[in-house]
Amino acid sequence: MSGSETPLLKAYGISKRYGHVQALAGVDIEIARAEVVALVGDNGAGKSTFIKTLSGVLRPDDGTIEMRGEPVRMHSPHQAVALGIATLYQDLALVDTRSVAANLFLGREFKRGPFVDRRRMNREARRALEELRADIPSVRAPVARLSGGQRQAVAIGRAVIQGGDLFIMDEPTAALGVVESGRVLELVEQLRDQGRAVLIVSHNLEHVWRIADRVVVLSRGRVVGSRRKHETTIDEVVRMIVYGAATTEGEAFERRLATDPP
Amino acid sequence: MAAASDAVRVDDRRPERDGPASSTRRTDWLDLLLDYGLYVAIVVEVVVFWWLSPHFLTSTNLLNIGSAIAVLGVIAAGLTIALVAGILDLSQTPLIAFTSIIVALLSARHDVPIGFAIAAALALAMAIGLLNAGIVVGFGINSIIATLAVGTIVGGMSLLLTDAQPIGIPDAGFNNFFFHRVLEVPLPVIILVAVYVIAALLLYQTKLGWHIYATGGNASAARRAGIPTIAVWVFVFVLSAGLSGVAGVMTAGLSNGGAANLGGDLLTAATAVLLGGIGLSGGGGRIERTLAGVVFLGVLNNGLILLQVQSFWGTIVRGVALLLAVIMVSVREKRMAR
Predict the structure, then answer these.
(1) Is the pTM of this model over 0.95?
(2) For chain A, how many structural domains are there in total?
(3) B20 touching A, CB under 8 A?
């Protein structure tokens, strides 16, 4: 098990500047296989910029990204996908008019002779969704007929089929109701059980707490804290998000006194 | 198979407001109407005309209907494939007249053998399709405006080339060819069926066809999935123009010449397409339904003629059909977007 010692992804010193704004100022992060890491932080903390550098959309000004111990340079999202980094954007990039199976194999349809192999795609689509325990009535149904959570499942299923090892999810539960959110969180757990890693960006700490193994807090382009979930509390994470540093309870109390005297 | 049974658990745990499950059940009848209403309408038409006219349900008359709808059907196929890709191609009808003129001019005035004249006309049509594609893709212009402009130019060229006079084709063999029958079936009907069979194979069974749907349905998602959307659009523009060329050659053969006023009106083809429920927003629709729309209009026209109804009524009925079709398409798209 030498592989378990090298993290699946290691990024260090990642910096990105937009004009006068230092969006990322040396971000370090490691993600192991079968680990769910939540990336949290206030608006403008640099979460979106950071995941874009991991998914090949943005090139960092500085810093190194290693996948499976090998340094990688990504010039396009396609290269990230080829390296096993699957990014699920909020729009999910689904074709609503097409079936679940057609979406799962979008752009990489199986062929049999000159024609598409519909039966094989339906079969493998069913299998991929079963492995995820996704709740989708039929792989032939058009995606437009699915609920928000089911659509997430299709997008995740596609990334699984494309060979994703690391899943980057940007606010996957933002537009969903309680039950649908629960389903998506179950999908994330399913991915972890399959040995895949997930980096999930979310504003919803309650959701984060249900699934994350580790919480990484970003503030003004820096990692201000990285905690195993069972070694921290929601309160501590909130304090890190708000005050931008790993403060002790005492310090936070003093600050509160200073700003909001009893 | 624990996972399987887990995966197919449906609906039971889903409360209202959290998923579309409840609404899919409630309005099944509307789905049925949208999916099969057109076919039922054709059956009703046939029964009514059969009842009212003894000449309607004869093989001669049915083949007449087939010949009458062949040209319309071919361009409606092109219109459908373009719409699936998210393109509205308005240069089709001017192209029909134009290709008929090219065939007639080359063979009548320049003594070009008819086969070469046909090939040249088809190539020219496809070149104009390439021009459409270049304008739309290159400048990012809406396909409606671009093809309207190109169609207008093509229409003007047709008038210029012919001085607005019809040009006859002296080669009687060409004309006879299109009135040729194979096992009693007129050649235009065979062409029509072949076009639809090939188009259906393309759309449903090939990777390219799936990519046409994906490009029309969500171009940005298709692009991110690695589908060459620009190449798909170029192909579709050229195919649509090529089918207009085929329709133009058929028109030249059937009317034994070319003229700027040939080609019929695009609105009839659009009515057929809309009757088939092909949405205007791209990515959806099935081409056999367009053929059904064409058949519906062909039967209607034929029946009204047989019953000697004044032809203006036909226009009114077509207008009503167009209106119904548009309403149905709009209902369908709203349901998809829900």
Answers:
(1) no
(2) 1
(3) yes
